[in-house]
Design goal:
The longest helix has 40 residues. Helix 1 runs parallel beside helix 3, helix 2 runs antiparallel to helix 3 and helix 10 crosses helix 12. The chain has 213 residues and is an all-alpha fold. 32% of the residues are buried. It is elongated. Helices cover 79% and strands 0% of the residues. It has twelve helices and no strands. It folds into two domains: 103 residues, Tetratricopeptide repeat domain (Serine Threonine Protein Phosphatase 5, Tetratricopeptide repeat), CATH 1.25.40; 91 residues, Serine Threonine Protein Phosphatase 5, Tetratricopeptide repeat (Alpha Horseshoe), CATH 1.25.40.
Length: 213
């Protein structure tokens, strides 16, 4: 019995040591991540890349993994290495699929469009904002990209609806009808807002498709 008690105590001690080691490792990872972000903000991208990579190797939670990979993507993009930039963004999105960039990050001329092309939610939001601003060509690209990357049904129907508006505004009636059909296929209950229903071009087209005429 004494041997069993001694063995149990030894196992408990070893488990405690393992938990302590994990805590130390996690703390080191966090400290290294913070140092990497500080170096990035200071413009020391080479040192930042080393620290961020080291933090990932030490072990980070999913949210912190996404932060590290995102900043590594920024560093790669800034150096003109688009393939590596995309790879890091993919890893960031794999760790945190709901990852979004801050407004000033989204507006960056190099990595902003790359991230948007890889994130359906970001591309969808950007496409709607560009539509409201009258930037129809860019809006269409982002909305189409968001659909290709995958959107929930409600957002996908909304994306097709706005693509229909863009085509109708450019007198492309066939493409307008096609997009409305796709929107209604995703969400048969889709209705236009009052201001949208009253539009002289796409309002009648939508109503004819909705009624099956």
């Amino acid at each position: 019995m004494r041997r069993l008690t001694t063995a149990a105590a030894l196992l408990a001690a070893l488990a405690g040591c393992a938990a302590f080691d994990q805590l130390v490792q996690a703390t080191k990872a966090q400290v290294t991540l913070v140092e990497g972000l500080r170096q990035y903000d200071a413009g020391d991208h080479e040192a930042a890349a080393k620290s961020l990579s080291a933090a990932l190797e030490l072990g980070l939670g999913e949210r912190d993994q996404a932060t590290a990979h995102k900043h590594l993507a920024f560093i790669q993009c800034a150096a003109g290495r688009e393939r590596q930039c995309r790879d890091e963004f993919r890893k960031a999105l794999a760790a945190q699929p709901t990852l979004r960039l801050a407004p000033e990050e989204t507006g960056h001329p190099v990595w902003g469009p790359i991230f948007l092309s890889m994130s359906s939610g970001q591309a969808f939001s950007a496409g709607l904002k560009q539509y409201e601003a009258g930037e129809y060509d860019q809006s269409a690209k982002n909305l189409q990209g968001a659909i290709a990357l995958g959107l929930p049904d409600k957002e996908r129907a909304d994306a097709h609806k706005h693509l229909a508006f863009i085509h109708c505004s450019s007198n492309r009636e066939r493409q307008c009808r096609d997009e409305f059909r796709k929107a209604l296929a995703v969400d048969p209950a889709l209705e236009l807002a009052p201001a949208e229903r009253g539009h002289p071009v796409w309002g009648p087209i939508f109503r004819s498709l909705k009624s099956g005429r």
